[in-house]
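2024-03-11 09:14:02 DEBUG pipeline.ingest accepted 1 chain
2024-03-11 09:14:02 DEBUG pipeline.ingest length=129
2024-03-11 09:14:03 DEBUG pipeline.predict start
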Amino acid sequence: DAGERVLMMRRHRFIVDRWVWELPGGYVDDGEDPAGAAAREVEEETGWRPRHVEFVLSCQPLIGNADYPQDLYLGTGAELTGVPEADEAAEVRWVPLDEAKAMIFSGEIAGAMTVIGVQHALLRRSASR
């Protein structure tokens, strides 16, 4: 999508008891390639399958409370393959980057990895101009 939109999902997070927008994410199964897991999770949660997935970074979003490293991948060239699994998201949509940036400041995006992912997309867009 030429780096102008990000694929996001709206879901309820019970820990904070809020509806928020997030990037797709999930776990790597035993023996699974991490990039392949990223593509699989996107497809399961959104119905879109990225044609290309590349590693961006690994970070510790809860370093003061837990040892819980998380990896961020960039998927490009998404192809619609079906519908998301029923329990994954209330809504899935392509969000323009400028709107996603505003959603961070309004609190509609709250998760650390989604904030980092949107900021990464904004930096990539800025560098390509």
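2024-03-11 09:14:41 DEBUG pipeline.report Helices lie at 34-46, 97-106, 112-128.
2024-03-11 09:14:41 DEBUG pipeline.predict end
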